[in-house]
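FW: tagging you since you asked about this chain on Friday. Here's the raw sequence from the shared folder, copied in full. Didn't touch anything.
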Amino acid sequence: MSTSEATVINPLPGPLQGTAHVPGDKSISHRAVLFSAMAEGTSHLEGVLDSEDVQSSIAAVRALGAQVDLQKQPDGLLAGTVTGWGAAGPRLLMGIVAPWPITVEITGDASLQKRPMRRITAPLMKMGARFEPAGQELLPMTELGSVNLKAITYDAPMASAQLKTAVLLAGVFADGTTTLNEPAPSRNHTELMLPDYGVPTTAGTRVAAVTGPAAMHSCDLRVPGDPSSAAFLACAALLKPGSRLAIEDVSLNPARIGFARTLERMGADIATSHKGQDGKEPFGTIEVAYTERLRGCEVPPQHIASLVDEIPVLALVAAHARGVTVFREVGELRVKETDRLAAVVDGLAKLGVDAWEEGDDLCIEGNPDLVVPDGLVLDSQGDHRLAMTWALLGLTGTKPVAVEHFESVAVSYPRFLDDMKELCA
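HL: got it, structure written out here
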């Protein structure tokens, strides 16, 4: 049952069982569309996520001159072709626009207009791009590209795959080697994918580099399942008595499955098995089963980038564990789709769970005997990760939970509720 403001999530009638598949990885889908649009020739793509976010990337590259023919398949994913402009997401798009002598206004929805862009514009300006109004921190803004980009070596102030990607994409067209150093590892999909498009690339633990100018060519690419989406199914199985799931064809990129390693440390019955490679992206199966006794743990700063999008749902698992769980240096959560740090603390408080911020750390004192109160209403604030996290309270518990603005799940996992119901024995 849903209204314009809230969706009532009812408990599943039984455990989650069998084999599951999640939508295509959102990060890889964005990059596949964007890189194919930049390349010479026609790329053939499979497994592309059909979500609001990816459709925004498709619309953007079409506006910039790419020809996109991606059709929905029976599995709900997109497949088809992208013909790029060759020689002829707002953070990622900044890097794409920078090398071209065009003026483009870049904007976004309400949440994107609150997110800091200076971290992206600062290195691009060092390379020769210009942004107006001068000194603007937030969207909307106008970018003036340049055909004479300079290669740079840049020490990033934070681990950010979006920052890294924007700089590397601009570096593809700069004269020389553009190098980006990070304080901690971030998602490395860009540096793994660019060689498939003909770009000489270095991919290290905390360093990535491209040598330009490089002529990008088309390629054939299959997008594996999204580990961030898989995390919600895995956590649901952990919390729903009697559940046992095998989530297949999921990206097992080490930069993306930190959530599985964290759940292992909490005592969860979870394991990953490698099945193959899509290009340089490993994929395989995540097997998970209901675990009655979970324990708190500490997640150090160097592991945060590999699970940053999964912290809300990991926090929910931590709320059911015995002892204290601490996520170190997670201030980046304040500048996601919403202030996820504050939202998690507030939401858990409604459950009677003690959660608090200590500087940039998130601390949660779990309660293995957690009972969801009657009539619980939680606000996702239009954030897809929060919407799915709070939905798990209803799905895996014994009482309905109302989630405000649940429709935001369309950003990354439109079939989330349907898939959960289909997996219920």
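FW: The chain has 13 helices and 22 strands.
HL: agreed, and The radius of gyration is 21 Å.
FW: great, closing this out.
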